[in-house]
Amino acid sequence: MIDAPLKALILVCTLSPSPKRSSSELLASQVAAELSMHAVQSETLRIVDFDVKPGVEKDMGEGDAWPGIRDKIMASDILVLATPIWVGHPSSLAQRVLERLDAELSETDREGRPILFDKVAMVAVVGNEDGAHHVIADLSQGLGEVGFSIAAQGSTYWVGEAMHTTDYQDIEQTPEVTTKATRTSARNTAHLAALLRNSPFPAG
C-alpha cells in the first residue's frame, strides 16, 4: 500500500517568464488538477524563471539553478514536461531539461539500478501549428532513455488550426478531446507511479 501521497513535479517550458500568461502553464494546471483526483500532489515550476545552465552535468557550477530542480525531481514520483511547439519542435528549454537529465544515465541507486527507473514521466504539448505528435515522440523517447517510464497514452496536447495564431489560453472552452486526453494520461500516469512505488523494477 502507498504510505504517502504520490508527488509530481511539473516543469513548464514556455519561453514566457512569469507573470506573463502561458498556454503551456494553462495545460499544466489542468494536468495538475487531474492528477489531484488521484491523490497526487503537484508542484509547478516555470523553467524560464530559473538560471538553468547549459550542459550535461548534475551541477554546472556557480549560479546554476538545476541542482535545486534536480532535488525536486528526485523527491517526486512523477515528472510532467509541458512545452509549446516552436517551428515544429519542443521549446529550447524542454530540450535543455533533457540535456540536464542526461547526467542521470550514470547515476544508480543502492541496488545498482538507474536512479530514475521507478519514476514516471508525462508530456503535455500546446501550439498553434502542426507537430504535437513529433514533439511528444521526441520528449517521450528522451525521458524513457534516461530511465523514466511512460504510461499508456501518457501524453496530452492541443494544437490550433495550422497557419493561424490562436493560442490555447485564448479559446473559450477546452475541447472535449483534449480534456479526455488529459484525464486519461493523468489517470494512467498516477496508476503506473503507484505500481512502481509498490513494486520497483528489479535490480540487474
From TrEMBL:
Gene3D superfamilies: 3.40.50.360. Residues 14-152 form the NADPH-dependent FMN reductase-like domain. One of its GO terms (molecular function) is oxidoreductase activity. Coiled coil: none annotated. This is NADPH-dependent oxidoreductase. It comes from Arthrobacter psychrolactophilus.
